[in-house]
């Protein structure tokens, strides 16, 4: 399995940014780390190895960007308004530096997104906000409510980055049409502490007639062994 390391300066954060890439060709998939995780986390915990066959066969190429959660949502030293602004800067890195690079390398006009836990938040939030850029999204044990990170503060930026708030009110035909084109997979364990959040997200998508696959896996918890199993299965569904 081919592995590439990239380090580049991004204007959106005014700093260097790191990323690992696995594979040489195929559908581009942006895979986010969990909360405050580093770009090599998904490799270290075996998520990459769980789909090694698809990577070696040239069916998928995986891009693993760094996170800056410790500077944004989890940075309780700064004001919540600044946490959201920092998150928005990160979003620009993903949109303009990572996604565009992945599209250029693979020759594809759309990318897939994936993540576990808070990484699932990043994947789902970007997919719902920029659906014309996204072909698929895989979310495992995701948490989708950012209100615990803003401690009572609220503004438009908070609203438009909290799927539980903006999705129930979304009636724009263009957005709904494009979201409905995305292959959406949501998986969570029955013993996961985010089971209810995932069920709630599925109910919201159903209310908007957005087709998706939703699974509450029996005897599964919020942990990597279960994520590896589900990830392998869901990637295979995307490729089939």
Description:
By secondary structure, this protein is of the alpha/beta class. The protein has a single domain, classed as Rossmann fold (3-Layer(aba) Sandwich), CATH 3.40.50. Helix content is 38%, strand content 22%. It has helices at residues 41-44, 52-56, 80-106, 118-129, 156-159, 163-166, 173-179, 195-207, 224-239; strands spanning 3-10, 15-22, 27-32, 60-65, 111-116, 134-140, 183-189, 213-217. It has an 8-stranded mixed β-sheet, with helices on both faces. Helix 4 links the parallel strand 5 and strand 6 (134-140). The longest helix has 27 residues, at 80-106. The model has no long low-confidence stretch (mean pLDDT 97).
Topology readout:
Elements: E1 3-10, E2 15-22, E3 27-32, H1 41-44, H2 52-56, E4 60-65, H3 80-106, E5 111-116, H4 118-129, E6 134-140, H5 156-159, H6 163-166, H7 173-179, E7 183-189, H8 195-207, E8 213-217, H9 224-239
Parallel strand pairs: 3-4, 3-5, 5-6, 6-7, 7-8
Antiparallel strand pairs: 1-2, 2-4
């Amino acid at each position: 399995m081919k592995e590439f390391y990239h380090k580049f300066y991004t204007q959106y954060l005014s700093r260097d940014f790191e990323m690992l890439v696995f594979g040489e060709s195929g559908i581009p998939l942006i895979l986010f780390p969990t909360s405050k995780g580093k770009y090599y986390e998904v490799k270290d915990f075996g998520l990459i190895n769980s789909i090694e066959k698809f990577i070696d066969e040239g069916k998928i190429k995986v891009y693993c960007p760094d996170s800056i959660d410790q500077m944004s949502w989890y940075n309780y030293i700064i004001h919540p308004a600044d946490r959201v602004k920092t998150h928005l800067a990160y979003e620009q890195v993903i949109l303009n530096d990572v996604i565009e690079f992945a599209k250029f390398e693979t020759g594809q006009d759309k990318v897939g997104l994936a993540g576990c836990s808070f990484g699932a938040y990043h994947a789902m939030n970007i997919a719902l906000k920029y659906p014309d850029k996204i072909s698929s999204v895989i979310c495992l044990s995701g948490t989708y409510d950012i209100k615990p990170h803003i401690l009572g503060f609220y503004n438009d930026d908070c609203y438009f980055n909290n799927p539980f708030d903006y999705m129930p009110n979304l009636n724009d035909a263009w957005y709904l049409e494009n979201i409905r084109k995305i292959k959406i997979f949501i998986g969570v364990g029955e013993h996961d502490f985010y089971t209810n959040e995932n069920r709630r997200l599925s109910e919201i998508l159903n209310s908007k007639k957005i087709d998706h696959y939703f699974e509450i896996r029996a005897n599964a918890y919020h942990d990597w062994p279960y994520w590896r199993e589900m990830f392998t299965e869901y990637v295979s569904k995307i490729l089939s």
